[in-house]
Design goal:
Elements lengths: L21 E7 L6 H8 L4 E6 L14 E5 L1 H8 L15 H6 L4 E5 L3 E2 L1 E6 L5 E6 L1 H10 L34 E10 L5 H6 L12 E3 L12 E5 H4 L18 H16 L2 E11 L5 H24 L9 H16 L5 H19 L1 H4 L1
Parallel strand pairs: 1-2, 1-4, 2-3, 8-11
Antiparallel strand pairs: 4-10, 5-11, 6-7, 8-10, 9-11
Helix pairs in contact: 7-9, 9-10
This protein binds ligand LCYJ2WEX and manganese (II) ion.
InterPro entries: Nucleotide-diphossugar_trans (IPR029044), RGP (IPR004901), RGP_fam (IPR037595)
EC number: 5.4.99.30
Protein name: UDP-arabinopyranose mutase
Length: 366
């Protein structure tokens, strides 16, 4: 039983924050019944971008009442032509196509086995309220509030209602920086790698930590794409989920790769990345044996990849996300290809991604 937190319940008729400035991107090979659970929060004028992976001839049923656009592999090939080669097939990495075609400032991406989470809140008279928590609302709050990457704030989010900066926090730093990414977490099935899943098949995350914190500058983190929101205008071009799945030597490193690139670029451009609330309820454990096959090479490659990102230095001439990303792709080709020829291919795909992004989003090219 998760202990209650002091989060105010969201009435069903809550106003849809940023309703005209945010798209919700969902990768799927299954069905979208999970949207029923989100109906109180997402039926409002939030627009869904569904990226259908796998067999394009399969019909994905979308529950009534949702405003959406759906892209399958045929659509991706039609829209991007040869550049479609940079969008993964048979891997959730395909979701980044949704980021590219969106025209909104903000993106919230969620997996189709993630649910709004019921929370139990006890009150003085032991009246119990079961409340569905609106993860999207928390992500929006995270993105609209500044981050504090330069100097660690020990009492978590100083911009949160009812909180403030603690003694000793420099006043010159209290304005903070713009927040580019809000990384949410998960209750129930934790996002473990395959070896951990295999040794701990029954482990569930029941620990709810009522906190949001900025990831300090110069620190990398394992970004999970399950419950993630970001400012597309600030960091969208860096949210490429790499070459994974069909025909590739690794999988399930899509969100991780994007997170490492994003954090290096956010640190360089002075943008913030937050992790913590909101939580979603992750319902399905994927097959650890299938996952082990996908992750196997990544598990030992990352021992070289992480030091690469930790030492990556972008030039002062790189002032846009695209310029940072192209510089990073050159470093990947130069410094990681020795691990495996895959990285030379990935570096080329990173360039193709930027070309495709700029083609579909000429406004952000500058
Ligand atoms: O080939 C595929 C497989 C899956 N999807 C869609 O992607 C998400 C996540 O799939 P699933 O829940 O089965 O996998 P998890 O192990 O729980 O996912 C974690 O690993 C990351 C994938 O690298 C993911 O972001 C994490 O949550 C679902 O929506 C599937 O429908 C797909 O599109 N193609
Ligand atoms: Mn899952």
């Amino acid at each position: 039983m998760v202990e209650p937190a002091n989060t105010v319940g969201i009435p069903l008729n809550h106003t849809a924050l940023l309703k005209d400035e945010l798209d919700i991107v969902i990768p799927t090979i299954r069905n979208l019944d999970f949207l029923e659970m989100w109906r109180p929060f997402l039926l409002q004028p939030y627009h869904l971008i569904i990226v259908q992976d796998g067999d394009p001839s399969k019909t994905i049923a979308v529950p009534e009442g949702f405003d959406y656009e759906l892209y399958n592999r045929n659509d991706i090939n039609r829209i991007l032509g040869p550049k479609a080669s940079c969008i993964s097939f048979k891997d959730s990495a395909c979701r980044c196509f949704g980021y590219m075609v969106s025209k909104k400032k903000y993106i919230f991406t969620i997996d189709d086995d993630c649910f709004a989470w019921l929370q139990c809140r006890m009150e003085l008279l032991l009246r119990i309220h079961l409340e569905k928590l609106n993860a999207l609302e928390q992500h929006i709050k995270n993105l609209l509030c500044p981050s504090s990457p330069v100097f660690l704030h020990t009492l978590y989010d100083p911009y949160r209602e009812g909180a403030d900066f603690v003694r000793g926090y420099p006043f010159s730093l209290r304005e903070g920086v713009s927040t580019a990414v809000s990384h949410g977490l998960w209750l129930n099935i934790p996002d473990y790698d395959a070896p951990t899943q295999l040794v701990k098949p029954k482990e569930r995350n029941t620990r709810y930590v009522d906190a949001v914190m900025t990831i300090p500058k110069g620190t990398l983190f394992p970004m999970c794409g399950m419950n993630l929101a970001f400012d597309r205008d600030l960091i969208g071009p860096a949210m490429y989920f790499g070459l994974m799945g069909d025909g590739q030597p690794i999988g399930r490193y899509d969100d991780m790769w994007a997170g490492w690139c994003v954090k290096v670029i956010c640190d360089h451009l002075g943008l913030g990345v937050k992790t913590g609330l909101p939580y979603i309820y992750h319902s399905k454990a994927s097959n650890p044996f299938v996952n082990l096959k996908k992750e196997y090479k990544g598990i030992f490659w990352q021992e070289d990849i992480i030091p690469f990102f930790q030492s990556a230095k972008l030039s002062k001439e790189a002032v846009t996300v695209q310029q940072c990303y192209i510089e990073l792709s050159k470093m990947v080709k130069e410094k990681l290809s020795a691990i495996d020829p895959y990285f030379a291919k990935l570096a080329d795909a990173m360039v193709t991604w930027i070309e495709a992004w700029d083609e579909l989003n000429p406004a952000t090219k500058a």
